[in-house]
Amino acid sequence: MFNEGEWSAFLSRELDSTVHVRFGRARQRVLEASHKPSLIGGASVLNVRLSSFFSEAPEEVRAAVAHWLRVGRRARKSAALLDAWIETAVEQLPPAANRRISICPLGDHHDLTPIALELKGHPTHLPELDSLPAVTWGRRTRTRARRSLQLGCYIAADDLIRVHPVLDQNWVPEWFLRYVLFHELLHAALPSERGSTGRAVHHGQVFKRWEQNYPEYSRAVKWLDRNLPKLLRTSHRLSDRSRPAPQKTAAVQLEPAVRRRPAARAPSSPKPSPGWLFPFLN
Ligand SMILES: [Zn+2]
């Protein structure tokens, strides 16, 4: 255990300035730092907010935090080490008790459950899964026109697959939807591979081999290629007319699966990225 006081003392010593560390419960922005100007004209204080699981951080992770705070985005090795450690730590967190995720697999035009069940029972398509992840349509929200779409994602921490509601339209063929679910189930079945720097690689060699083995893979790629403009056009017209008010899903967001590097002095942080990403779109 390394408590707030020990962290504060450690970072103050390492950075040779006053650092205040507070633990929080964040799962997304797990490491944030901001400078607070001193009121009496002295040196500014660096406020650092860490998720409480940093109390378990081993020595090399503590050193990486210090290095990253000192050097910023040039601390590539430290950032990679932090990313990898945070990702594992977040995966091991127990589900937050007060977090509600609404599960709604039955859409207006497509029901995700039977498709997922059918895939699970198909060992030549998919490595064996102990259990089927929860499967749900994402919330329909009115958004501005987009240039990219995240059609599906697998959130390991919740063992949840979320599919973009733009695919719940009558002109979207069921076999394409099956492909999207297959892709996300493959994430559930295969652990993320590690790249040379220790970063997670979501679409590694093994993943790609399985994916390209899927009988409708090239058909799906072609279909998406042809229909992407229409999907983009229709995505921002979706509204939540037929559904109950969406429940809050605190920690889970649909967002581009771009892993952010910690930025120097900025209040952004290394974000754990759930194992997802639709292959053609990002
Ligand atoms: Zn993916």
Description:
The chain is α/β, with parallel strands linked by helices and 282 residues long. The chain folds into two domains: 4-92; 102-282, no CATH class. It is 34% helix and 12% strand. It has helices at 4-15, 59-71, 76-92, 112-120, 174-189, 205-213, 217-235; strands at residues 19-24, 31-36, 45-51, 134-137, 152-155, 160-163, 193-194, 200-201. The strands form three sheets. The chain has a three-stranded mixed sheet. Helix 1 packs across helix 2 (59-71), helix 2 (59-71) packs across helix 3 and helix 4 (112-120) packs across helix 5. It starts with a helix and ends in a 47-residue tail after the last helix. Bound molecules: zinc ion. Zinc ion is lined by residues 183, 187, 202-203, 276-277, 279.
Index terms:
7 helices, 2 domains, 282 residues, single chain, three-stranded mixed beta sheet
